[in-house]
Amino acid sequence: MDIRIELEAKLRELIQDSFDSYAYDNAIFFADKLLSLQKKVSNVILLSQAYFHKGSYSRALNVLQQNKCVPGIATQEECFGGSGVNEEHSACVILAARCLEKAKEWQNCLKMLSCFDPKLNDTNPAGQPQSGIADTVPWGKYKGAVHSMAGRCCEELERSKMAQKHYDRSLEADPHHWISFYRSVDIHLPCYGSLGLTKIRAPDQVNSIIRDLFSCKLSYWEKQEPLVCPRASEVSADAYLHDDQWVMPEEARLTQYFGYNNPFILFCRAERLYYGHYTQAAYDTAKKVLEQDPYHEQCCALYAAALVSLKQKTDLFQLGHEVVSRWPNSVLSWFVIGSYYFAVEDYDKAGKYFYKATTTDSSFLPAWIAYGHTFHALEEGEHTMTAYRNAQRLFPGCHFPALYMGIEHSKSGNLQHAISFLNMASTLAGECRDPLILNEIGVAHYRTGKYETAREYFEAAVERSPVKSWAVKPGVPVTDIQRMALINEGVTDTPEIPNAANAMRDSFWEPAIFNLGHTMRKLRRFDSALHYYNISLAICPHNASVLTAIGFTYHLQSKLDEAIQYYHMALSVNSTHSFARDMLNKAIKDSFYHSHVTSSSASSPPSLRPSVLSAVSPPVGGGRLSSQSLMNWGARSTSGGEMSMELDTTMIASSTSPQNSGAVHFPIQQD
Length: 671
Hints:
two-stranded antiparallel sheet
């Protein structure tokens, strides 16, 4: 046998052994000698692959170009040495494009991919010849991957519409191309993700399982019905933490094959709970994922968001140190550090780190939203809107930027623009019917005096809460609501009370319930108003604003003893509450006047004096007409904070400060 043939076989064996043992330096050494021994496309690919696996992307690309396997140094005629084009040459182009993608040379990557189709690089002028192999390269099995890479390049180059088209074409060519599907959903294009899902045929059980895996990612966006927290009579006292409560049908089927603790399935569940504003349950589920895989970057981002929402500053501080040690100078590190400073209300430092995150990776949506919220906290409206506009430009299918721009307009009193942006957010959110959007639209209509319309939106938001069976149908005994408050404070765990009290410890749902109480009072449905106020008080005990609202409602019903009692309770919580103090003085005067009138004329019915009903209208501290102030960091009162009361038997909104009430929410992305 020819010695050259024996040497070539031995070198290939050594290269394969090096790949198998992940000794890429070894592989590079022997692959270089093999290429010198025999100039073949397959040998060029081996050496380039060795450099690629080592992380030397520029050298890998240079090997391909120097050997005229891809366009670059070579002209169209010289490319591939004049030999015929085959699948090996297609592999060379794909490898070269991967090198450029890893090096983040997005424009050059698109230019390389245009070898398959000149239209992939839409910056190429019409009629200008392409330097490459054009339509002569067989697409074959690479078509899905080519469009997927082209979509990512267009994303980074801020060509969102082209990115959407490429992901769509990728899923048409290969319905099982997970990255295209993930990115479609990840940049909040659920309709495109659904399109890919419909292309996965399920003629047998195996394809049905694959379809369920993809469906997990869309489980929240496609579900119109809210998650339900069952009553204690149906499940145990800590059922809201039990996995089965939050399992969707597709997850239940998948657990038969992948178990209950698969990180992907758990992460999808945590993300669904997070978007559904069940922050405590999302936190617990994300914690399980990180216990198995502490290097799960997307879950780290979600976990940090939940910690901000739940005000777990110590855990957030520790997470920041861990993330920085694992991924120094990464977008995730800057984001988590910024989240910590946001949680401790050092907004200047938070803004600096969020800005670093946006410059490190402009496609990381949470950083843009958090950056906008930082300016919102600093009351810099123009900078706030700029950050949200950038997010909307980069992620046109995401409803969060439109939502927060609507909230910002509502805060500045521009209600028509606010309603327009909020309706846009509602359209983009689709069937998920985010309760945060519903609440904010209700707030805008409340401020324009459309109380019936506001009531409909507030009720729609409350219907998606864990206590919808209580909140939507007034009539629950006050004693039960009081026991629910005790559970929230950790005093008792009465099994007769719905476990929703536990699920609502993050207080996300309280603003919508409180707002619904205000609306009912404006509509003079005082019993219903008191019902919602009591539930609001059960969720957030010792809230001076709620206590004052209850007292004021009793005052309007001429139940002066009860009104005085609640005004006193409000002042015991917040002695500087000016409205409660003024109303207490009015109630005492009314009580004296009522006693005086009763003693002088038994036939005269009790009433409030007209002067009392129009005397003052100071703001109520800590109120919450709207419901969101962090990144999608939950339902908080961002458009304003304070509800004010005016003494014409009504209560109106007067937004002056943001009000926190819930979870931190943002899209979690895959790099």
